[in-house]
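Researcher: For the annotation table, I need structure tokens for tRNA-guanine(15) transglycosylase-like domain-containing protein. Please keep the output clean. Sequence:
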Amino acid sequence: MIPFFVLDRRASLEILKGLFLKFPSLQFGLMTHANVSPQFIELFSKFPSKTQLKYVDEIQKNKREINKLLKRNIIKISDSGVFQKNGSNHTYEELFEKYVQLKVHYGIIKDVLHDMKATLKSAEEAINVYEDNGFKRKFKLIGVAQGNNADEYKKCYEMLQDLGYKYIAIGGLLKRNGNSNYVTVRSEELLQQTISLIRDEYSPEWLFVLGVYHPSRHELLDELGVWGADYKGWLFHYDEFYRNAIKKLEAQGRINKEIREKYQLFLKHKLTYLQTKTPENRKKYWESRKELDKTLKKYGTSLQELRFREVRERLEKEVVAKMLEKETK
């Protein structure tokens, strides 16, 4: 089961390059969308070679060896960006040209949430453009099964096969969490029913489930025979007190008295703000945060380094550990 990290910013590539380097034998995925900036297209298409390697300890290999090592085991996917804030107004010709520019291994059709008929109509147009315009040589096209229940998903999957799709993902299993930007799985029961029904009926060698990856679901997806799933929230869950990173820098002798004092002040004001939520304490917290960053930069580090280290630490413990466990069985 390959986790695909969803991203559209340079810093995300920098964080992941440091993580991937530590485990070069594992396969990881990167997933982006067609609405990213030209600058990001350039970075993503050439990843890992044009992405900086930041805040990584004990690198013994040279830059060329590192990039060659990582490139072998990284798989890239893009979707149309139809579910992004600004949606997608690309024609299929334009969309597929974006996929070529991004140099993805797989490109996803424009699907319509929970609407099997509209998705199939889009899928038919997509595969015609794909086959008639030479895109077949550039990337693998992914159809998307949509539906409102497991039987509809199965029917949509079958009709996509009839249209000629070899690679089919399951979409539409997410829902927005209240008014926030966060999404969760609509129903764990629907997820399991749908994947099991398609697996038992068609025994696909390749099965991707859109948006459902979470470390807590890794073993389940693996048991259900899922090849890959994308992970949207990976960048936002880490220790924002930076305890692990501070501990690591202390062990390296990089934390002095001034940094320690600013860090303790930051902790004090942050905890007070979290307990009270008052505007006054929020201001004190942000001021102490700025002061900590300023002091860290004075001694050759930054809050960015602390964040990079915390995100990597969490991914290593919660995602990579599960992948390594599978390899040893």
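Researcher: And a one-line annotation?
Model: The chain has two domains: 2-236, 238-329.
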